Amino acid sequence: MTKTAGIVVVSLFVSGLCITPLAIAGPTQPNKTAACSAQANEKGLGEEKDGERKAFMKECMSAKQVKAGGTQQNKMKTCNKEAGAKGLKGDERKTFMSACLSN
């Protein structure tokens, strides 16, 4: 019986290792969508300019994020703009900035 329980525990552990990267990578898509939407709004591409907005969103969503190339100062500026566009304040802003700067 203990051999069976050991096999079950190990298989659950291994499956957890396989699923964890997917769970960590999942929330980036909504963040990217929100960031692209905020950029579109900053450029004046509101809902009334549907065709232009769709084109911009498609280009923005397909662009790859630059991780290593940006300096900390540039990251700070970008994250600060995003937090301002979302109207975040207090603890929500701190949490957002922490997550944004760690990417």
Layout of secondary structure:
Layout: H1 2-25, H2 28-42, H3 50-62, H4 72-86, H5 90-102
What does this protein structure show overall?
The model has no long low-confidence stretch (mean pLDDT 75). The protein has one domain. α4 packs antiparallel against α5. The protein is mainly alpha-helical and 103 residues long. The protein has 5 helices and no strands. 78% of the residues lie in helices and 0% in strands. It is elongated, with a radius of gyration of 20 Å.
Overall domain count? 1
Overall pLDDT? 75
| Rg, Cα atoms, Å | 20 Å
Largest sheet: none
What's this model, at a glance?
This protein is mainly alpha-helical. The protein is 78% helix and 0% strand.
List key phrases describing it.
single chain, 78% helix, 103 residues, mainly alpha, 5 helices
